[in-house]
Prior knowledge:
There is one protein chain. The protein is of the alpha+beta class. It is 27% helix and 22% strand. The protein has helices at residues 20-35, 73-84, 113-126, and strands spanning 11-13, 44-51, 56-60, 90-98, 131-135, 140-143. It has a 6-stranded mixed sheet with strand order 1-6-5-4-2-3. Strand 2 (44-51) and strand 3 (56-60) form a beta hairpin. The longest helix is centred in the first third of the chain and has 16 residues, at 20-35.
Amino acid sequence: xxxxxxxxxxxxxxxxxxxxxxxxxxxxxxxxxxxxxxxxxxxxxxxxxxxxxxxxxxxxxxxxxxxxxxxxxxxxxxxxxxxxxxxxxxxxxxxxxxxxxxxxxxxxxxxxxxxxxxxxxxxxxxxxxxxxxxxxxxxxxxxxxxxxxxxxxxxxx
Length: 157
């Protein structure tokens, strides 16, 4: 039996080390947390994306008592942008959250499996990596492609 080692390269940054555009996206994601509807989990997630044409979109999680009927912030932003600009690649996706106390989280939160799959599909569709910023008050993870979080991904054949 052969063994394989998979490695992910993730940069760790402070907010002040990021570009103005990255900081703007993170601030938009923070704004998205206040638009979230999370009466069940009380975990308010915000996302913001930058498209190739320079347009930016905010997304936020929207929960529903019929659990699968809700949507995560990441997919909310990606799908909203896709509805308006279906031919534009997503360049960067910023994500953050507020905990059950309403405070911004200290450590970055990572996308769920369904959102990871949607981001993989987005990369595949546009043949362009989606750069991901996972913001926490203590640090931000900067990831060059969703493949760093999901190296054995399900893509088109």
